[in-house]
Amino acid sequence: MTTPLQPNTVLKAESVRLEELPIDSGTVIWGEPRTSISELATIDSVTVGVWEITPGVVTDREVDEVFVVISGSAVVEFENTECLLHLTAGTIGRLRAGTRSRWTVTETLRKVYITLPEAKDAAHVTTASKVTDR
Q: Going by C-beta distance under 8 Å and a sequence separation of 6 or more, which residues neighbour residue 29?
């Protein structure tokens, strides 16, 4: 579902209507999580949208993305590392393309995301070296 975000306008992220986005059952570890999405705008290959997931545990392969959590809570773990992201309302995060993750969602989580086009030269991509759970 596309809810166009026109220039010089605003939308309330918590009120954006979403369309179901089926989850591959092979990625579900626990529960019956459901995801939904609405792409709001694409500008020069950068996409902005709203994504939501209900409680459960799923695995994923990430895209290059920056996001802000609007509501809910989850913990994201990454394969082959002890890094944990504790997500709650107001959290700002960054995901790296290709990273394998495990999402443990305890309260329906809604986020505004910005996906970036795949970098041709990953050397210019920088990431935070420290993760906090404030």
A: 56, 57, 58, 59, 102
